[in-house]
Amino acid sequence: MADTPLIALDAMGGDNAPAEIVAGGVRAARELGLRLALVGRPEEVVAELAKHGAKPDTVTVVPASEVIAMDEQPAQAARHKKDSSLVVGMRMVKQGEAGAFVSAGNTGAIMAAAIMYLGRIKGIERPTLAALMPLSGKLTVFLDVGANADCKPNYLLQFGEMASAYMQRVWKVERPKVALLNIGEEEAKGSTLAQESYALLEKSGLNFIGNVEGRDVPTDIADVIVTDGFTGNIVVKTMEGVADFVMNQLRTAIKSRPWYAAAGLALMPAFNQVRKKLDYREYGAGPLLGVNGLVFIGHGRSDARAIFSALRVAREAAQSGMLEALREIAPARTR
To answer: Which of 57, 261, 264, 282 has its CA 20 to 30 A from that of 121?
Structure first.
């Protein structure tokens, strides 16, 4: 157990903190044997722990007196709330006390704190926030989804390199297929950014398969899809909105007629399969790639199941040598 990495979990981060966060942490400790540090206000964390019976031996509580709210100004909060659960957890990674940090809290504050306390990996120009797309039944990493609204071609190249390393180390995908999001498949399509990024990716040594269009994002055409953060954020939020709309329309239609409801009951297993593919909780959290430490950011709505999944992925990353692989990317390009 001693060589199992300790994972720091922001017990106060997210819409459902601390109850669902602690519940997910306890489950991970019991079912995965995970070593876990619950970072937060001790009285609140201990009270939640008490609801789950005897505390697992692998779980510790790390005090943090402050909380960064979901609506606070990110950089200011990360700079001034130095005893917040988010900053204390980040410092644990910086000091080598934890192998990774997981939070479902304020995304901007997590990113700001990661840059302030961990810094960027040498040679990486911009950290990037990745989303995990399980819609096809096969996982695709889609990035950037909001960390960098304005990008240069070299940023997109580095996004592809880091995401490829992530897929290899954590998800065991050999030679991940990397694609560039564009308005057409042809090499000469799109903006200047897209065309120049295409040229860099093509000669990068990555398993680059060319351009893909927006309709390809939910499919299994690629293991990694790269774009700028402005475009990526819009794509992800549009997909979330469409998915919610479709599921709500189905529920409304099924309830509109008694015979529809009967048919809906018979089709429930099929509906559950679709729901599972759309469920972010299966993968829990996306990695913040490019900072000098392992940081995973969960959805603000994360419940116990999502936190369990996030902790599982974070531990795999810490054990896989993922950070070391990311550190080798920039030097390898200059050799």
So the answer is: 282
